[in-house]
Amino acid sequence: MRALFLPAALFLLCPLVQGQKHVPAETANLTPLHTADILELLKEYQCDSQVVHVVNFWATWCGPCVQELPLFFAADSALKAASAPVNFSFFSFDMKEHSEKAAALMLKKGFTNPGYLIDEVDHDALIRGISELWQGNIPFTLILGKGHKKIHDQSFPTTNSLIQFIQEP
Fold first, then answer.
1. Which of 19, 97, 141, 158 is most deeply buried (CB count within 10 A of its CB)?
2. DSSP letter for each residue of the chain
3. Model confidence over 75-100: pLDDT tens digits?
């Protein structure tokens, strides 16, 4: 009996030892999308005449990405309070086996916004398809909609700087 107890205890404690909280897959989920689907979705966002779409590319292994996530949550809350028609979407470069960790981090930060997992081997095709100006570094943010396309290829220092970038024509 003891021989079964120790391995079972270690298995259950493993996420805690690694500093990760286990979140069931049904509550933490990222929709996997391939490059063609992502580019089509972004095209739809850009053509949207009613809503401004804020699209953030990030990963859990990217310190600046994780650090700026709360800024997006604060901006989302502030813009909703101001009745601004803004939609936030997040695309993770995490590998499939880490998608639950990425989804859990988004939930932990308070997001219920759409989350997507970039399910692609050739990230260069996606990067080139989004912008010739993008070198592939993350965090990377796009503002799309109402005929506009703006890019920001570094982390935002404050919520106000993010909101200002979203609202600038």
1. 141
2. -HHHHHHHHHHHHHHHHTT-----TTTS--EEE-HHHHHHHHHHHHH-SS-EEEEEEE-TT-HHHHHHHHHHHHHHHHHHHTT--EEEEEEE---GGGHHHHHHHHHHTT--S-EEEE--S-HHHHHHHH-TT--S-SSEEEEEETTEEEEE-S--SSHHHHHHHHH--
3. 999 999 898 899 999 999 998 888 88
